[in-house]
Amino acid sequence: MEHKHIISVLVLHKPGVLQRISGLFTRRWFNISSMTVGSTENPDVARMTIVVQGDDTVLEQVVKQLNKLVEVVKVTDLNSKKSVQRELCLVKVYAPTEDSKSQVIQYANIFRGKIIDLSTETLTVEITGDEQKVNAFLDLVRPMGIKEIARTGLTALMRGSKILKSNKA
Amino acid sequence: MKGAEAMMKALEAENVKVLFGYPGGQLLPFYDALYQSDFLHILTRHEQAAAHAADGYARASGDVGVCVATSGPGATNLVTGVATAHADSSPVVALTGQVPTKLIGNDAFQEIDALGIFMPITKHNFQIQKTSEIPKIFRKAFEIAKTGRPGAVHVDLPKDVQDDDLDLEKYPIPAEINLQGYKPTKFGHPLQIKKAAELMKIAQRPVIIAGGGVQIANATPELIKLSEYAQIPVCTTLMGKGVFPEEHPLSLGMVGMHGTQASNYSVYESDVLIAIGCRFSDRITGDLSSFAPNTKVIHIDIDPAEIGKNVGVDIPIVGDAKAILKDILIHLMKKEMVNKTEWMENVKKLQKKSMPVMEFDNTPIKPQKVIKEMMAALREVDPGLTNTVLTTDVGQNQMWMAHYFQTSAPKSFLSSGGQGTMGFGFPAAIGAKFARPDANVIAVTGDGGFLMNSQELATIAEYEIPVIVVIFDNRTLGMVYQWQNLYYGKRQCAVHLGETPDFIKLAESYGIGALRVEKPEDINEAFKTALNSGKPYLLDIIIDPSEALHMVPPGGNMTNILFPDRQEPTPKAQCFSEMKKILSPKV
């Protein structure tokens, strides 16, 4: 059955690694929903959080093929573990009147979002959460008119004290 | 010392003996250092041939083959050869020149993104950005190429990196290298090995598919032992040809699209299938839903990603084939096997059915007859056929050889499997000759494939490399024509090579001895002449263009073997007249 998988990948923090990984996904027709990259506690290692759509066979191949790459240090399927997931979304909402502005502010408060910019016609809200939460907020403000959205894609960590250690070092 | 000199030191440390390459502007420091070194450098006449030669060297020896090309077009010309090597897990290190680092990204003369181009067709690749990185990167490149599942590795060498000074005492060539993200598994999981042995013990209709991985792991002795002890018949893939002696009573021959009936039916009827170092390519399985439907699969492979990729597996074992087979044998030796008399009789019947017919007196000559005479002539100088290395090109010549030529030694049948690269056979034979200087090295090719790298006649003439080229000459792109006949209503499009060139004159123009053979009774003598000459030689054998080998339609059930109606190809006449109208000068 097709579903979304969140895969956490530790890679060597080097130029070209992203190309290697994205090239692998393109070539093998793995369906990426999102991919985030950033540094980790170890300056030589970066973490990629990749959301992939596919069945279990596809997931198995994604993990195995990623593992084959020399610069990939560790791959884990976070679906099989308890994890915390967050995405950052910036959304610019059309709010030309005081009423509409206060409405957005109210919604943002409920979703624990922040107003980070303001103009005569728009409000920019910063919202973090899992995908559903972000989507729910966007659905709420959509009727007012969304001018622009920037989403980072999901990033995630295992819940609890467990960490993704490089077993190959 | 200059960076390029350090590169020579690094190559020496890797025990490299011969480089196949083609110089160019961005490789001038490299070639200058080469001039002062003791390396044998073979100047091929095209970079693609350099890559195939390095690949042939690697396949025949098991060591890393090295090819070199300059930046830009030099690098792109290497691509086909590197992709070919990588697809067949052949350890090749490809070195390319690159524009100086300060020009990278500026679209300089002969600049190309070699790093990007080689990335998807290699196991890994590097661009050396600082001279101080040379010792480590060279060590890493060779380590990655030859360990685990071998493959092609590319290293891009900017010109200034070759030119700049390097203190080798400060940056020595490391003996050991620790690659954080790269730790291939060698030994199989003990529990899985035990399970596999249990299953083999109770199997009533077991079959082994031995692939190229057995070749790479040098696991032939263990494979023979397992097969004999447990009474398991063995079929091989194209890449595995040679890992199990084909005259052995338990040999079933090649499996798959062009495989033997014995192999394909045995696999279909098996209850336990033991795949060793084989990746279950579509050429082996055909339609996956009808492939070996009632079987339990034990899959042994050093690359975990190959296990479960195409065929569902019951017992996966990751590791080196030799080590795993050894461990399985230890478990098996303690056990009693299930009686397999019935299965053995069935296998024998199938083997009888698959016996190839090779005696033909027809003119034009049948390819089967050529192969029969080739084997006879070879056996006179090499009775066990163990001191003979064959390379094939791609197409019908390849499948005829795979089907009819009985191989008895590993690493002696070199063929482009994964990529099916036309033009591979002849240059690969050049490399193989350097790996096995004492062996009879024969390149079997079609006329189409030979023309793709025939310029290498210059190379074998120049260095007097005693490789024998055997052209199965039918003036046709035979495999394509066969498929057009079978699946496209006999509409033969662009498969006729016509009557040119005269390969004898071509060979002679390079100063190479050559013979044309048109009658079956002359074949044996021609082979003897070529074999005894001790020089490069070309045999142009005019064969029957209507000859075709049986096959399974792509994506079909592997027991549904199609025997083609043999039909003379007929060129599409109006093509030529149209062409002439366009090309003839207006009056």
Describe the model.
The complex is a heterodimer of chains A (169) and B (587). In chain A, 28% of the residues lie in helices and 41% in strands. Chain A has 169 residues and is an alpha+beta fold. Chain A folds into two domains: 3-78, 2-Layer Sandwich (Alpha-Beta Plaits); 84-155, Alpha-Beta Plaits. In chain A, strands 5, 6, 7, 8 and 9 form a five-stranded antiparallel beta sheet that branches. In chain A, strands 2-3-1-4 form a four-stranded antiparallel beta sheet, covered by helices on one side. The longest helix of chain A is centred in the middle third of the chain and has 13 residues, at 56-68. Chain A starts with a strand and ends in an 11-residue tail after the last strand. Chain B has three domains: 3-163, 3-Layer(aba) Sandwich (Rossmann fold), CATH 3.40.50.970; 190-354, Rossmann fold (3-Layer(aba) Sandwich); 367-542, Thiamin diphosphate (ThDP)-binding fold, Pyr/PP domains (Rossmann fold). A six-stranded parallel beta sheet of chain B has the order 2-1-3-4-6-5, sandwiched between helices. In chain B, strands 9-8-7-10-11-12 form a six-stranded parallel beta sheet, with helices on both faces. Chain B has a six-stranded parallel beta sheet with strand order 14-13-15-16-18-17, sandwiched between helices. Chain B starts with a helix and ends with a helix. At the A-B interface, helix 1 and helix 2 of A face loops of B.
